[in-house]
Every structure is written in C-alpha cells, then in structure tokens.
Specification:
Blueprint (H helix, E strand, L loop, with lengths): L1 E5 L9 E5 L2 E8 L2 E10 L6 E7 L5 E9 L2 E4 L7 H5 L1 H17 L1
Antiparallel strand pairs: 1-2, 3-4, 4-5, 5-6, 6-7
C-alpha cells in the first residue's frame, strides 16, 4: 500500500513523494495459544516503530508499540502489556525480524 504526500509548493515546483506503507499479520504462539498479531509500521522516522494489536482470550483487542532498542525489538513499557505478552516478547521479536527480512528482499 502506498500513500502520497503532496508538498505545498507552487504547481510548477510541486513534487509528489510516495512512502511505502508496511503492514502485515503474523501468527505467533503466545500464552499457550496461536495468536494473530497485526503490525503497521509508523513512518515517523528511520528508527522504526510498529503499532501492534492482538486479541486476548475474551476477544478484547490489545494495542501496543514495538520499538527497536539496542538492536532488539522491544514492547514499549508505557503500554503495560499483559503478562502472557511480556513473557513471549522474544518469540514475537524473532517473528518480526523474519518478516522484515522478507520485506527487505522485495
């Protein structure tokens, strides 16, 4: 998916910049279940932040961010994730890294 950012320049100087939107879903075993995690890259800067959401046992959607810190993807502690999500952070990180390798090849 792509979206266009149009600069506010006079028409003869106007440029259109396309930014690739990265969004995907991954199935990861977390909390004794296979769960579908939905990822969307936030293009704030080059460091990389993903907005992630997943359903819990009751069907409530849990929203959190993952940021790359010291070469590892970490769940933003401000969101205070549930215990089962925090305990499975490493498997979520590995799945995210694998998916990003595939996106880099495209």
């Amino acid at each position: 998916m792509y979206f266009a950012v149009i600069n506010t320049l006079p028409p003869y100087l106007m440029r259109i910049q396309f930014t690739k939107m990265v969004q995907f879903s991954l199935l990861v075993k977390a909390g004794d279940r296979l769960r579908e995690f939905n990822f969307r890259k936030l293009n704030k800067d080059e460091s990389g932040v993903f907005a992630v959401n997943v359903c819990d046992e009751r069907g409530n959607r849990i929203f959190f961010n993952m940021e790359k810190q010291d070469g590892h993807w970490r769940i933003d502690p401000v969101t205070s994730p549930p215990k089962w999500l925090d305990q499975n952070q490493e498997s979520l990180q590995l799945a995210l890294e694998e998916e990003l390798k595939q996106w880099a090849n495209n």
